[in-house]
Amino acid sequence: MTFKELNISEPVLKALNDKGYSTPTPIQQQAIPVASKGQDILGIAQTGTGKTAAFAIPIIEQLKRQPQSKGNRKIKALILTPTRELAIQIEESFADYGKYTPLRHAVIFGGVNQAKQVQQIRQGIDILIATPGRLLDLIGQGIIRLDGICHFVLDEADRMLDMGFIHDIRRILPMLPEKKQTMLFSATMPAEITTISKKLLHTPVRIEITPVASVVDTIEQNVCYVEKPEKMNTLVRILNEEERERVLIFSRTKHGADKIARILNKNHILCAAIHGNKSQNARQKALSDFKSGKTMVIVATDIAARGIDIQDLGVVINYDLPDVAETYVHRIGRTGRAGNSGVAFSFCSQEEHPMLRSIQKLTGKKLRPMAVPA
């Protein structure tokens, strides 16, 4: 199937061709025809399955058919997302897919001065991508109104819950018009998200893509049995062997991420750490350098890594095993995207053996034991 077969209009097709996209992913094949008709969607899909295009393209298609206001534009589409990095990434997608349309969009998030964001909103926009805190802040200041919203997307709903945004979401929902199209996307469906989805969605079409365990089928998974004091030496050796690949390293803590980055740089392996304590500018520079290939290694905590979406990411290294087995799947699923192969290395100390057992039970796969590089 091609994007043309999904009855996408010429301006959007041209923009997709510019990016070299011709074949829609499974979620795009299922969601775009449904969403383009204005139906509500409950999408259960991992990051990296192409879900941004699955909601962005139908929103662009519907909005561009509406008459464009000559005066003050009302915000017609709101995409709510948990992290700054993800918000920026979604806005870039709207810019890519909508570049041959007259639609205007903006992204707002906390941690930076609001002046530029406010200026964009006051100039008039059709599509707003926002994190919950900054959105509520600007609503409180009277800068944003949600009474013109006809398309609402709640993205990464389970991560919103993890990050403690559920209270903010409950405050935002009553401000939205009763009549609107709503699309909710989540990698998992904890009880609280199920409850919200029932209140929020009207006769939704449920689209479930790739069960949790099968995301990892195309990824070569290795485990290094190594105690904490030897993890750093093992990491340096692996990175020296994988020097031509982009590598994403996961640390369980912010302090750990900083420490790993500091020691790697001392070992002449250029890298940066990203986590919630870094300034927005520092995080953006680290991501830009990584995407451009200026640095080939980045160290991240789980929440910060949600903003990393790179097609040719070759290697993921779990410096620390995660406490929750599903998190392992999210982590290594950042490699092996779009049909590419990927490699994952997981370091496992004696105290992490129970975590490893949980991971192998969830995925139904035994990680391949690997000798520690000499």
Mean pLDDT: 88
Low-pLDDT ranges: none
Report the count of strand segments.
14
For the termini, the CA-CA separation is 47 Å
Assembly status: single chain
Instruction: Describe the main β-sheet briefly.
Output: 7 strands, parallel
Shape category = globular
Radius of gyration: 21 Å
Widest sheet, order of strands? 3-4-2-5-6-1-7
| SSE-based structural type | alpha/beta
Write the element-wise H/E pattern from the N-terminal end onward.
HHEHEHEHEHEHHEHEEHEHEHEEHEHE
Strand content: 15-25%
Helix content: 25-40%
- Number of helical segments? 14
Compose a concise summary of this entry.
With 374 residues, the chain is of the alpha/beta class. Helix content is 40%, strand content 17%. α5 (115-123) links the parallel β3 (105-108) and β4.
Folded structure, characterized:
By secondary structure, the protein is α/β, with parallel strands linked by helices. It is built from 14 helices and 14 strands. The strands form two sheets. The chain has a seven-stranded parallel beta sheet, with helices on both faces. Strands 10-11-9-12-13-8-14 form a seven-stranded parallel beta sheet, with helices on both faces. Strand 10 (271-274), helix 12 (280-292) and strand 11 (297-300) form a beta-alpha-beta unit. Helix 2 (26-36) packs parallel to helix 3, helix 3 (51-64) packs across helix 4 (84-97) and helix 13 packs across helix 14. The radius of gyration is 21 Å and the shape is globular. The mean pLDDT is 88.
